[in-house]
Amino acid sequence: MSGYTTFTACCQCGNGAHFAEEFLGNLVIQGKPELTSLIGLGSLTKVSGNFFIGGNAGLTSLAGLDKLTHIGGGLRIQSNGALASLAGLDNLTHIGYRRSRQWGATRVNLWSLSKSRLL
């Protein structure tokens, strides 16, 4: 997407680094097998672009995304082998683009995540 900056996060999102409430652009958390947590994202409420979480073999939960309510683009979660659920995305009310994606070892339909609240 033109005009968007893609930020590739490092393991710091689980090690005490903290992000602002709103992230402008595409947020990519990728290829960090030592990453186990996203607690450093605890204040994040909005991602204006796409949000990708992938290739993080040690990631066990999405806890830390509890305040996230809005993703302006798409949400893609894949190849996070230890991820057992989507718990942590319970307050998400808007995803700009939705379709089935793989998370952990299971495919999930993001429409089912909606609880008829995602617009």
Describe this structure in words.
It is a single chain. By secondary structure, this protein is mainly β. It has one domain. A hairpin with a 2-residue loop joins β8 (101-103) and β9 (106-108). The strands form two sheets. Strands 1, 2, 3, 4, 5, 6 and 7 form a seven-stranded parallel β-sheet that branches. The protein contains one helix and nine strands; from the N terminus they run βββββββββα. The relative contact order is 0.17. It has one helix spanning 110-113; strands at 6-9, 22-23, 26-30, 46-47, 51-54, 70-78, 94-97, 101-103, 106-108.
What is the secondary structure topology, with strand pairs?
Blueprint: E1 6-9, E2 22-23, E3 26-30, E4 46-47, E5 51-54, E6 70-78, E7 94-97, E8 101-103, E9 106-108, H1 110-113
Parallel strand pairs: 1-3, 2-4, 3-5, 4-6, 5-6, 6-7
Antiparallel strand pairs: 8-9
Low-confidence region ranges? 1-5, 114-119
Class based on secondary structure composition and strand pairing? mainly beta
Overall form: globular
Please give the radius of gyration in angstroms: 13 Å
Distance between the termini: 21 Å
Average pLDDT, to the nearest integer?
76
How many domains make up the coordinates? 1
Percentage of residues assigned to helices: under 10%
Largest pleated sheet: 7 strands, parallel
Number of strands: 9
Question: What is the string of helix and strand elements?
Answer: EEEEEEEEEH
- Number of separate helices: 1
- Percentage of β-strand residues: 25-35%
